[in-house]
Amino acid sequence: MEAYRVLLLMGVSGSGKSTVGSLLASELGWKFHDADDYHPEENRMKMSRGIPLNDQDRIPWLYKLHGILLREIASGERVVLACSALKKMYRDILIRGKDGTPWKHDELGKEEEPPEVKLFVVHLSGSFEVISGRLLKRKGHFIPPKLLQSQFNTLEPPSAPENFIQISVDKELSEIITTIMEAVKVQ
Predict the structure, then answer these.
(1) Which residues of 104-138 are buried (b: 16+ CB within 10 A; e: fewer)?
(2) CB under 8 Å to 34, separation ≥6 — which residues?
């Protein structure tokens, strides 16, 4: 089985995606991208006003992230991506990109499937109470704690046939990193 080139850390705001992702990338020697860094200004402004994003807000952002992942993989990189990826549809976009993308034709005129990102999903999960407590302590982030309930409402935890593990955010950071590192080795 081919090794995963992209490890997706997903979960609601405040689940620790950025913290775990940056440490994990450093441990693995992989490149790290925080999806929040790629939100358009309109999305950031909307969230900072306490307005949840909808599919129309998120989908162009996810297409952009898919393109970034394809470029990184093409250049030989392995990537840790911290991204909420709350719905299965969002994770599918990270894997396949834009639905309806014209397929390429090889020199014989045969259709070739569009490139996919081989993704291993790590769902950082926790109770509303635990994550809400974390958000109340967080300073300087554009997503206010009052958006947390909308994220839990939107959340579709990964399930088969997705390639994933779920880890509780109640664990110590070092234990979370170790668990992920062991899971990546097995893959």
Answers:
(1) eeeeeeeeeeeeebebbbbbbbbeeeebbebbeee
(2) 17, 18, 21, 22, 82
Omega cis (within 30) before 102 = no
Residue 82 reports pLDDT greater than 80: yes
- pLDDT category at 68 given cuts 50, 70, 90 is very high
Do the bridges between strand 111-112 and strand 104-105 make them parallel or antiparallel, or are there none, so unpaired?
antiparallel
Helix, coil or strand: residue 186? helix
Q: What is the pLDDT of residues 98-128, one digit of tens each?
A: 753 444 545 555 555 557 888 999 999 999 9
- Amino acid letter at 160? A
